[in-house]
Every structure is written in structure tokens, then in C-alpha cells.
User: Which sequence fits this backbone?
């Protein structure tokens, strides 16, 4: 597998990208993601879908918080499982790119499900080092590698990948640049699967969307932009699932945790009012 790029300027090309890298480098001091993945070592930087066990809210305070964290992690794992279910025919010889790979949770789940080769890319050096260490500890470093690279310009050879996934990362980049790069590195007939939050065009911009963007330093795209840009870049949807209603229980439960961050109400209000949508889209890459 190809290693990281040594020239930082080839990875981080402007002030905005530098601010995003700095944000994720500093997340090392935020314990919530580590607490959620403490039992199985799958550390995610996305959210979750599905209902939760409401009986845990009746537990005594200390037991309740432990149970809430366990349920939140189950729901975030379930979200990644939806991506794996959507990918379909992936085998041990397949190569998959996890674009915006964070601390490795999605990449490790890809390898564990399919036995495939996985490259993860992130512009956070801290995340690369953290996930690389985990790959060694999990005994899969010969199949799962993490790279200090920009998903807009990966530097990987054309047609290298059988599939690409993004798990709540596309709101940090220009979609045309991103999907254009994916069209270059995904072989004809390969697949791209995305889970993302996005602005509902019918409602338009809202205070909740602005709050979420401010909290994460991102730029949420409109739902229509995803489908228009995918088509422009030769990706044809074969599965589209609106997960908005399925995302609400996660945020309800997280708001009951002692480790809530203050953004919970924004997501709850955005999803309940349909100002924002939570989507899964599976696509095939057309030959050109």
C-alpha cells in the first residue's frame, strides 16, 4: 500500500483545510469517542441510527451513563453496518478507500466484514498515527493502512479501488472536487457509498443548520447538490435511504448522556423539522 505524502503542502492546501486538520488534531483531548469505543476498540467520529433500549433510562445514575454509552456505540456501529450492507459484492482481494477515516472505526469494520484491503485517508496526522497503532494492535496492518492524504487529491493511481466510502465526512469539502477524485480512483463498475447530513432544499437554510456548521467548522451541502454532482461525475444511485427519522433516537439518547456536547438540540430540531436530512446513497461508477 502507498504511504503518506511527506510534503504537508500537498495535503493541506489552504487556510480552511488547515483549520479542519487542526480541529481533528485537537480532538485527541475529547474523551467521548474513546469512551464509546472502549469495549471493542472501534473508535468512530460519526453518529448513529436506530432505536435504543429505553429501559436503560430507569437505571441508577452511574449504571445509566455506562448503558447510554454502550447503546450510543451500538447505534454508531449500526450506521457503519448499513454502509457495509449497501456495498454488496466485496471480497478479500478487493481494495476499498475510507475517505476521511478518522481513528479507523469504519476501516476496521470493512476489513472485518469482507477481509478486504482498506486504505484510510485523513488530513489529521494525529488520526493517522492513532489508527495505524490500532491496526497493529488488531493484527490487520497488512490489510488496513492509514495515510496522511487529502481525499480531494489522494495521489493514488487511477482505477485503484473497487469501492470508496465516506461516513459523515463530505460536509468538509467541495463535492465536485471530491466526486471527481473518486471517479478517477474507482474502477469502472466500482461503487461509492455515502452517509451524510445535508440541507433539505424544500426548507432551505435554517438556524439549526447554521449552528451545526459553526459547531463543527463545516459547510453542509444541499441534498440536491449530492445527486446533481454524483451524476456529473458518473456515479449512478442504486440505493437511496432517508435515515432522518432513524437518526432522531440517537440524538435523543445522547442528550441524556453526561457527555453531551451542546449540539444535540440543533440536530434534533433540524431532523424533526426536516430542515436537514440524513441520507445513505449507494452508487455505481459508470465507465466513461
Assistant:
Amino acid at each position: 500500500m502507498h504511504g503518506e505524502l511527506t510534503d504537508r503542502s500537498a495535503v493541506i492546501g489552504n487556510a480552511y483545510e488547515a483549520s479542519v486538520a487542526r480541529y481533528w488534531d485537537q480532538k485527541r483531548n475529547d474523551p467521548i469517542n474513546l469512551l464509546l469505543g472502549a469495549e471493542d476498540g472501534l473508535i468512530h467520529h460519526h453518529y448513529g441510527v436506530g432505536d435504543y433500549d429505553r429501559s436503560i433510562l430507569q437505571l441508577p445514575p452511574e449504571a445509566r451513563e455506562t448503558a447510554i454509552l454502550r447503546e450510543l456505540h451500538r447505534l454508531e456501529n449500526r450506521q457503519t453496518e448499513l454502509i457495509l450492507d449497501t456495498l454488496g459484492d466485496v471480497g478479500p482481494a478487493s481494495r476499498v478507500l475510507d475517505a476521511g477515516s478518522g481513528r479507523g472505526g469504519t476501516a476496521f469494520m470493512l476489513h472485518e466484514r469482507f477481509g478486504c484491503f482498506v486504505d484510510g485517508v485523513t488530513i489529521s496526522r494525529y488520526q493517522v498515527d492513532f489508527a495505524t497503532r490500532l491496526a497493529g494492535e488488531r493484527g490487520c496492518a497488512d490489510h488496513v493502512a492509514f495515510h496522511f492524504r487529502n481525499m480531494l487529491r489522494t495521489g493514488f493511481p487511477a482505477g485503484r479501488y473497487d469501492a470508496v466510502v465516506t461516513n459523515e465526512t463530505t460536509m468538509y469539502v467541495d463535492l465536485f472536487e471530491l466526486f471527481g477524485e473518486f471517479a478517477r480512483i474507482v474502477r469502472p463498475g466500482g461503487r461509492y457509498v455515502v452517509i451524510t447530513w445535508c440541507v433539505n432544499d424544500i426548507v432551505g437554510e435554517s438556524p439549526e443548520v447554521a449552528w451545526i456548521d459553526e459547531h463543527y467548522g463545516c459547510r453542509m451541502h444541499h441534498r440536491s447538490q449530492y445527486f446533481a454532482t454524483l451524476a456529473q461525475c458518473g456515479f449512478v444511485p442504486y440505493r437511496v435511504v432517508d435515515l432522518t427519522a432513524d437518526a432522531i433516537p440517537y440524538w435523543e439518547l445522547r442528550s441524556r448522556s453526561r457527555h453531551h456536547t451542546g449540539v444535540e438540540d440543533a440536530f434534533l430540531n433540524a431532523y424533526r423539522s426536516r430542515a436537514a436530512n440524513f441520507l445513505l446513497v449507494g452508487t455505481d461508477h459508470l465507465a466513461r
Summary: The first strand starts at residue 95 and ends at 99. The chain has eleven helices and seven strands.
